[in-house]
Amino acid sequence: MKLLRYGEAGRERPGLLDAEGRIRDLSGLIADLDGHTLGSATLNLLAAIPQHELSLVAGTPRIGPCVASPGKIICIGLNYTDHAAEAKLALPPEPIVFMKATSALSGPNDAIELPRGATKGDWEAELGVVIGASAKYVSEEQALEYVAGYCIVHDVSERSLQFDHQGQWTKGKSHDTFAPIGPWLVTRDEVPDPQRLRISLEVNGHRYQHGSSANMVFPVRTIVSYLSRFMSLHPGDVIATGTPAGVGMGQKPPVFLKPGDQVRIDIEGLGVQQQRVVACATEEIAR
Questions:
Q1: Which one, of 187, 251, 256, lies nearest residue 43 by Cα?
Q2: Under 8 Å between Cβ of 49 and 83
Q3: Of the candidates 12, 26, 52, which has an alpha carbon nearest to the alpha carbon of residue 183?
Q4: Which domain CATH number covers 168?
Q5: 284 domain-assigned
Q6: Distance of CA 149 to the CA centre of its chain
Q7: CB–CB of 115/280 below 8 Å?
Q8: Cα three-residue angle 168-171-175, rounded to 5 degrees
Q9: For the chain, how many structural domains are there in total?
Q10: Alpha helices (H) in 59-217, listed in sequence order
Q11: What percent of the chain has pLDDT over 90?
Q12: Over 70: is that where the pLDDT of 285 sits?
């Protein structure tokens, strides 16, 4: 299944993309697509319902993040051989783990807002893994059984905050709108091998990233197992598994995002994201 959330930001409803590419409403069956509904029992129930019995959604509503309120957004750094090479860094002996704030979550086609004073806004197209069952100390052999499905994650970064200031990467990764996910959560049964997906990203029509999840240093099953050693993974948690070569800071000379840019991401079988880059509003928030 291709599951999604549609509607005004903060008031999204759960839906399903049918075989003809139309949105069907699921709000009469589940409250939302979140940790309470992403277990195998609910997903099996939804899969058993004939799609034509679900109400069609009129028009072309906004598509929201495909998962509501994830408890964690966990990211893996330098997880592609070609990306490590362009960064001139050695392959890590273990997965590099950092976090994105959940407040960075946004819809797949919502605008990307650059932080105030941003000078090095960058893109990273990534395969996202959505957890469907609580996982703690799981083996690599069983790890994929804990996955509800897959989605596109855009790990937007402000490199000046990531590298030019003290501390960890999180503050360069967590500005509002820096975690677009979706458009769909594609259930695990439709992605038999997450290590064979083509990944591409364009900015203003120029293709910068064109890779494959086959080039991951640590595959999905290793990542899920590894993370479950250090923290419990809960249904609805999202893992961004790293990006292939072609990020802005890897260009010669570097290329960074600016207001007005248009970004397009395509991952095989998982849909397309399209975002416009905007500047952060200068007005202070009213108190």
A1: 187
A2: no
A3: 12
A4: 3.90.850.10
A5: no
A6: 11
A7: yes
A8: 160
A9: 2
A10: 81-86, 159-163
A11: 89
A12: no
- Are both 219 and 110 inside the same structural domain? yes
- How many other CB atoms are there within 10 angstroms of residue 165's CB atom? 9
Residue with tokens 């028009």: 59
HEC secondary structure over 224-241:
HHHHCCCCCECCCCEEEC
Q: Rounded to the nearest 5 degrees, what angle is found at the Cα of 49, between the Cα atoms of 28 and 70?
A: 55
Domain-located, residue 181: yes
The Cα–Cα gap between 56 and 24 comes to: 5
Tens digits of per-residue pLDDT, 138-168?
A: 999 999 999 999 999 999 999 988 877 777 7
Residue 286 lies in a domain: no
pLDDT digits (tens, 9 = 90+) for 60-73: 999 999 999 999 99
Residue 31: per-residue pLDDT: 97
Dig out the tokens for 46 from the structure. Answer: 């939804």
**Cis amide linkage into residue 253, ω under 30° from 0:** yes
Task: Tell me if 92 is assigned to some domain.
Answer: yes
- Same domain for 221 and 139: yes
Pairing of strands 112-114, 198-203: unpaired
148 and 228: one domain? yes
Helix (H, G, I), strand (E, B) or coil at 203: strand
**Pair 287, 150: CB distance under 8 Å:** no
Q: What is the pTM of this model?
A: 0.95
Banded model confidence at residue 282, pLDDT cuts 50, 70, 90: low
Domain that holds residue 22: 2-53
